[in-house]
Amino acid sequence: MFETIMKEYNQNKKGLDKQDELLRRQIGMLAEPMTKKVLHGLNANIAILHQNEQIIEKETKQLLKETAQLQKESQQWQILYNNLNETLKKVGDIVNFAQIIENELQELCES
């Protein structure tokens, strides 16, 4: 009796194992197209992200170059401004000196 129960159990187990394997295969076959679509969508999004990253990196490098150029030009303008300012001060000093000499000469001529 025990042997018959064991045989039935083993037969049922084999049948269930076959059903499990069949169901696994069916699930795999059914899931494969969906998995491919999901992966295709993800890959497409990743490709877009990669392209965007490359564009951002390129624009960042260009912006850094332009910023450095702007800084260099700003420094040159500042140097020119300082030189012009010093020159104007000197011209102002010369004009002031000339007026003082002119006033002193007029005083000498009048006396």
Question: On the 0-100 scale, what is the average pLDDT?
Answer: 90
Low-confidence stretches: none
- Radius of gyration from the CA trace? 46 Å
N→C terminal distance = 155 Å
Order of helices and strands: H
Structural class: mainly alpha
Reported for the largest beta sheet, the result is: none
Strand content: under 5%
| Share of residues in helices | over 70%
Number of distinct beta strands: 0
Gross morphology is rod-shaped
Q: So how many helices?
A: 1
GO biological process, one term: endosomal transport
InterPro entries: BLOC1S1
GO cellular component, one term: BLOC-1 complex
Family: Belongs to the BLOC1S1 family.
Structure write-up:
- It holds the Pfam family GCN5L1.
- The protein is mainly α.
- Helices cover about 100% and strands about 0% of the residues.
- It has one helix and no strands.
- The protein has one helix at about 1-110.
- The model has no long low-confidence stretch (mean pLDDT about 90).
Task: Compile the SSE list and pairings.
Elements: H1 2-110
What is the structure about, briefly put?
With 111 residues, the chain is mainly alpha-helical.
Q: What labels describe this entry?
A:
98% helix; rod-shaped; 111 residues
